[in-house]
Design a protein that fits this description.
Blueprint: E1 2-5, E2 26-31, E3 34-38, H1 44-50, E4 56-60, E5 84-89, H2 97-104, H3 114-117, E6 121-126, E7 132-135, E8 138-145, E9 151-158, E10 161-166, H4 173-182, E11 188-192, H5 197-201, H6 216-225, E12 230-234, H7 242-255, E13 259-261
Bound molecules: zinc ion (ZN) (2 copies).
Length: about 270
């Protein structure tokens, strides 16, 4: 698998974030010949540029906040008539994934509509909690997280290997128990570790309670309880530069050695 966007909330380009990367959520997962993409943040643009044509793949969207969707109109495989893409995602506010995706590409927000520019063979399959989808040898399951408007976590199991993508989640006792069960014994948990506990509680600025995000301390707690092999900190706070990411990771590793902070373009083999 490969991380193409690891930043939370808003792209944060510039020399101070160049190493961890400034693009928002996007992860490429390969299971044999199958291509699975998780989220369509701005990181998906660079992924699309380097995918050999024709592109055949499945895209899973956690939820439709800008930082998880905004890269889609610049994901060039959708302009290519030889590509085939299946979009999976939750129904929200009474709208299914097809309606929401075409809704974000409309005036006055965007110059061209999906009907005008989508040339690939695109289909849409709603995904909801407890759904279980088989793609080649991979099984994808979903679970609702605690986030304003909710967010779907995905688990991929393939040939005895497993990864859980759980971003945009505010820790909460009952929800945490469900996530621990969902991530049980997985090889890697990718977790929304946007804040520190001190930031979350407001000890270093505005409190972040109710904003829909979690902390690395909760990531460690959940990963340990679920007996996860590797914890990947994800959805980094946009103002956290490379030096402070390094410092944060050094602190986290004192509590859990098997942890890394995801970096843009980083590859991980499970
Ligand atoms: Zn987000
Ligand atoms: Zn969100």
């Amino acid at each position: 698998m490969r991380f193409w966007g690891v930043r939370g909330s808003i792209p944060s380009p510039g020399p101070r974030t160049a190493r961890y990367g400034g693009n928002t959520s996007c992860i490429e997962v390969r299971c044999g010949d199958e291509l699975l993409i998780f989220d369509l943040g701005t990181g998906v643009r660079a992924l699309g540029e380097q995918l050999p044509r024709p592109v055949e793949g499945h895209v899973f969207v956690s939820h439709y906040h800008y930082d998880h969707l905004q890269g889609l109109p610049f994901f060039t495989p959708i302009f290519d008539s030889t590509s085939r893409l299946v979009f999976h995602g939750p129904t929200r506010e009474g709208q299914n994934i097809a309606q929401i995706i075409s809704g974000q590409m409309q005036r006055p927000y965007f110059p061209v509509t999906t009907e005008m520019v989508f040339k690939a063979k695109v289909s849409y399959e709603p995904m909801a909690e407890k759904d279980r989808l088989t793609i080649g040898g991979a099984v994808v399951t979903a679970m609702e997280l605690n986030h304003p408007g909710k967010s779907l976590a995905y688990r991929v199991d393939y040939r005895g290997r497993s990864v859980v993508y759980a971003t945009d989640n505010e820790h909460e006792a009952r929800a945490d128990e469900r996530l621990i069960a969902f991530a049980k014994n997985c090889d890697m948990l990718i977790y929304d570790a946007m804040y520190t506990d001190a930031e979350y509680r407001g000890e270093t600025g505005t409190a972040k309670v109710g904003w829909g995000h979690s902390t690395w301390q909760h990531g460690v707690r959940i990963a340990n309880a679920a007996q996860v092999k590797m914890l990947a900190l994800f959805h980094h706070e946009p103002t956290r530069d490379d030096a402070s990411m390094d410092r944060l990771l050094r602190t986290v590793r004192k509590h859990r050695k098997a942890t890394f902070a995801a970096q843009e373009r980083q590859r991980v083999e499970l």
